[in-house]
Amino acid sequence: MSNPANALENAFQRIADTPAAPIITNQLLQQQVEYVARNLSNRAGVRLLLSCLLAKVDNPAVDVRKPYTQIGDEDAFSGRTYDERYITPFINLHHLPCNNTTAFLTPALRNRNATLEKGLDLVGRPPQLYTAVLDLLDAVHQQQISAADMLAETIRCLILLRDERQQRIEALLTTLQTTTDAIPLSAEEIVHLVSQHLNQKGTSRLPVLIVAAAYSAAHQHLGTQLLDLQTHNAADYQTGALGDLELTLIEDKHGRVVTSYEMKDKPVTHEDVERALQKLAKTNGRVNNYIFISTANIDADVEEYARSLYAQTGGIEFVILDCISFLRHYLHLFHTLRTIFLEEYQARILAEPESAVSQPLKEAFLAMRQVAEAE
Predict the structure, then answer these.
(1) Cβ(7)–Cβ(58) under 8 Å?
(2) Of residues 198, 197, 175, the one with CA closest to residue 373
């Protein structure tokens, strides 16, 4: 067996200097690899393909179509192990446009124990993506192409996609800088801009970034600091966090949480408040505020119930706030920091992984800000 990490780096080096030149000469296979690598609606396909190809390069005796040890055959392997142990650090190292989480926990791929044969219905969306992946794995199995060549070709397509995306972001930033006027956007214009951004698709991570940017911009005035944000898809019970965003006092060397925010892109329910109470009951520290930030309508009964918990909990305030109302009040309260907030929000958007804030959502914000500042 070879070293899987070295195998990935060898494939990367094969095309690093000449990414424009395809490795695969078979036009149909090359087009299928490109389709899988560039499919934005589902990024699990490319990680599945990378993991299976890497396993085959690492150990030629395995069947590239059998990434489940539950199959029980000698030529089966753990695709999830290859995915998590080797693909994840590789794509992070080279900033390749893939999800940060394994493909093998997606509904189409988890809890399986069957060979990924050509024609198998994985019940995933879009179905064309999984059909293409199965066709490509079958081509390797039938020895129409080597796993090493297809692995290098897949990485080549990801490099091209990465570079194209980065070039678009840089072009938008350059244009944005040239249109910036001497008069910064007003607080209400920033509220309108952020509201427009929230109205796009796939914005569930944005309220976290809005509140984080607000505190980052004003932390010297507040005496508090943010604890590190958890990944957007990490459950609180896994991370030990009270909420999506936590604040501690700057002078507290132990980093004890005094305020916790939980973001909701749907109405806050009684059950949500109850779960918050259960989490707080397991903490040893003294939390002053537990704040829900919602992008949906606020139920008056739930709001009243949350308010009533102050005495019951011995002084913990529960409150449910509308995301845009929070932002509007903040920007007027810290009016001189409004541009700092906007820059902080933009930086956090661009720094988020694809799985949290999509490339189109990043580009949309820069384009909308360009229009707002040009006007």
Answers:
(1) yes
(2) 175
Distance in angstroms (rounded) separating the CA atoms of residues 285 and 257: 7
Element (H, E) at 70: none
Question: Residue 76's closest CA among 116, 39, 109?
Answer: 116
Report the candidate in 320, 317, 318, 328 with the shortest Cα–Cα distance to residue 292. Answer: 320
Tens of pLDDT, residue by residue over 251-309, are: 666 567 778 999 998 999 999 999 999 988 887 667 889 999 999 999 999 999 999 99
Whether the pLDDT of residue 231 is over 70: the answer is: no
* CA within 13 Å, CB half, 33: 29
Compute the C-alpha angle 37/24/75, nearest 5°. 75
The partner residues of 247 in beta bridges, in order of sequence, read 226, 259
Contact present, 87 and 51 (Cβ < 8 Å)? yes
Which of 154-187 are b and which e, b meaning 16 or more Cβ less than 10 Å from the residue's Cβ? bbbbbbbbbeebeeeeeebeeebeeeeeeeebeb
With a CB cutoff of 8 Å and minimum separation 6, the contacts of 300 are none
- Distance, in Å, from the CA atom of 323 to the CA atom of 292, rounded to the nearest integer, reads 9
Cβ atoms of residues 134 and 118 within 8 Å: yes
Q: Indicate the pTM of the whole model.
A: 0.79
* DSSP-derived pairing of the beta strands 289-294 and 317-322: parallel
What is the residue-wise DSSP string for 301-327? HHHHHHHHHHHHTTS-EEEEEEHHHHH
Ordered alpha helix ranges (H), the chain = 4-16, 27-38, 44-58, 79-82, 88-93, 127-141, 147-179, 187-198, 206-222, 236-239, 270-281, 300-312, 323-333, 338-351, 359-374
What does the alpha-carbon distance between residue 150 and residue 235 come to, in Å, rounded to a whole number?
Answer: 35
The answer for residues whose C-beta is within 8 angstroms of residue 145's C-beta and 6 or more apart is 24, 26, 29, 139
Contacts within 8 Å (CB) and 24+ apart, 160-163 = 160/19, 160/20, 161/37, 161/38, 161/97, 162/94, 162/95, 162/96, 162/97, 163/19
Q: What CA–CA distance (Å, rounded) separates 133 from 131?
A: 6
For residues 131-141, give the mean pLDDT. 97
